[in-house]
Amino acid sequence: MWGQARFEEVQKQPVVGQWKPLASVIREQELQHPEPPAKDCGSGDGNQSVAQLNVSRLRSSSVEIREKGSEFLKEELHRAQKELKLKDEECERLSKVREQLEQELEELTASLFEEAHKMVREANTKQAASEKQLREARGKIDMLQAEVTALKTLVITSTPSSPNRELHPQLQSPSKTAFRKGHGRNKSTSSAVVTPTNQSLPSEPVGSEFKEVDSILFAEFQAWKESPSLDKSCPFLERIYQEDVGPCLDFTKHELSGLVQAAVEQNTLTIEPAATQALPVVKVSAIECGGPNGFRSQIVTKCALSGLSRACRHRIKLGDSGNYYYISPSCRARITAVCNFFTYVRYIQQGLVRQDAELMYWEIMRLRKEMSLAKLGFYSSEM
């Protein structure tokens, strides 16, 4: 039949191109091959054949579309996997770079901190060395200043009109003691007798006097000389305080005696000569103070320390106080002997006396002897 032949012919034709709707295909087929008018009995079979043809073509087109779509999705998936793989490789590389940079940064930070600590240690070491050098330099400066002060105190200008008897021993009488002169307006240290460092004391006494080193006293002196100080608690100074300093400065006026001893220890005592102008009248208050009140005159009055009526040719001042106390020659000799001892001890402490230990020991014993004689009432006629 014509319809069957047409269906077979349509099946033999290859399906090419994009799928089109069924109505469009049927319309194109009718335009290309117009069907001749047929009988009513054969129209039902033709419609059924066309429907089957359309269903078959529709199925083949959907299968083709599904295959192409799956291939496209596979390609897209493969491309996405490649991109993810590249991204992973890039991330891994960047992670390695970051780890390397962090490690380098840590190493650099550690090296910087180590270098900083090293510089701080070097700076601290240099600072400690500089401070040590500064302390040593200051100590040397203090020692030099003390030496200059001592030299200024010891060296007094001598002129033909008023020769210095200490610089010219031939002018001194052999019977005179070694008390220093020139207490006027000077501190207690100015009355010390210090042997120059470039001279040595004779080991044997003059005349028929002999001497022997006491082992106990010498041991105490050597122990004190290792670390010299003015602390009363050390055995060397404690013995001298008990045997010489205390008794020598123990006057009748105990309160004033304590002030005098404290001023001598602190090197703030001043001894100066009083004026020699006579006064017609002496006030009663002047007698109580141990000297003329508001006047300077050498008269017979009460000594401020002993309380006895004596010719007070000198007066003392304690520290920066404006009060003056007139003292007798005997009291002045006792104070001067103690001042001589403390001055020599201070010079040893400051390192100004560079002598053998035995020579320094005998000089201290001589000063103790002066204190003993002074506290017994012996003093020079020049007092």
How would you portray this structure in words?
The protein is mostly helical. It has a four-stranded antiparallel sheet. Strands 3-4 form a two-stranded antiparallel sheet. Strand 5 and strand 6 form a beta hairpin. Helix 5 runs parallel beside helix 9 and helix 8 runs antiparallel to helix 9. The protein is rod-shaped, with a radius of gyration of 63 Å. It starts with a helix and ends in an 8-residue tail after the last helix. The N terminus is likely disordered.
Which helices and strands appear, and what pairs or packs with what?
Elements (H helix, E strand, L loop, with lengths): L1 H11 L9 H11 L10 H112 L31 E2 L27 H12 L8 H14 L5 H13 L2 E5 L10 H6 L10 E3 L6 E3 L2 E5 L5 E4 L1 H21 L7 H19 L8
Helix pairs in contact: 1-3, 5-9, 8-9
Please tally the β strands and state the result: 6
Q: Please tell me the overall pLDDT.
A: 75
- Low-pLDDT segments, ≥5 res: 1-7, 10-20, 35-41, 156-164, 167-206, 277-297
- Let me know the largest β-sheet: 4 strands, antiparallel
The largest beta-sheet arranges its strands as 1-2-5-6
| C-alpha end-to-end distance | 178 Å
Q: How many helix segments? A: 9
Q: What level of helicity do the residues show?
A: 55-70%
Form type: rod-shaped
Give the SSE order as H and E letters: HHHEHHHEHEEEEHH
Give me the Rg, rounded.
63 Å
Percentage beta strand: 5-15%
The structure class reads: mainly alpha
